[in-house]
Design a protein that fits this description.
Strand content: 25-35%
Number of strands: 7
Largest sheet: 7 strands, mixed
Structural class: alpha+beta
Order of helices and strands: HHHEEEHEHEEEH
Mean pLDDT: 93
Shape: globular
CATH architecture: 3-Layer(aba) Sandwich
CATH class: Alpha Beta
CATH superfamily: Gcn5-related N-acetyltransferase (GNAT)
Number of domains: 1
Distance between the termini: 24 Å
Length: 145
């Protein structure tokens, strides 16, 4: 968790100006079921993300952050694929996320589609997006992930 928060603080708080009190929330502090992930290069953590139960068999993916030197090199795609696949294995039938608008194409490539009106979060415009997840072990789900 310490490594994940260090990445998020660098990307969201330092680079994007998100207030610290908005960045760390109840899913970091009080949600033992939230799943946090890291992508490593050797021993160094270079990307992080998480998901939690949003109800109605839906996993809410978020707090995806990749350190600047690793952007555009596949760390984010690897992270999103792992979070999506793990959500499917955990029994969720749908995954949703709020994409910063500059990253919509990234999420499209992973099978996510716009799902609702754009919204402002921490002063940054986001697009809600979602995708269906197959049953755990479903070959189509694994291929999409």
């Amino acid at each position: 968790m310490e490594e994940a928060l260090a990445i998020r603080l660098r990307v969201f708080v330092e680079e994007q100006g998100v207030p610290l009190d908005l960045e760390i929330d109840e899913h970091d502090r009080d949600d033992p079921a939230a799943r946090h992930a890291l992508v490593r290069s050797g021993v160094d953590a270079v990307a992080t993300g998480r998901f939690y139960d949003a109800g109605e068999a839906t996993a809410q993916i978020g707090r995806m952050a990749v350190l600047a030197p690793w952007r555009g090199q596949g760390a984010g795609a690897l992270l999103l694929a792992a979070l999506t696949a793990e959500a499917g294995r955990a029994g969720f039938r749908r995954a949703r996320l709020d994409a910063q608008v500059h990253a919509i194409g990234f999420y499209h490539r992973a099978g996510y589609r716009e799902d609702g009106e754009r919204l402002w979060d921490a002063g940054i415009l986001h697009q809600p997006m979602s995708r269906e997840l197959g049953a755990p072990g479903d070959a189509q789900n694994e291929a999409r992930s």
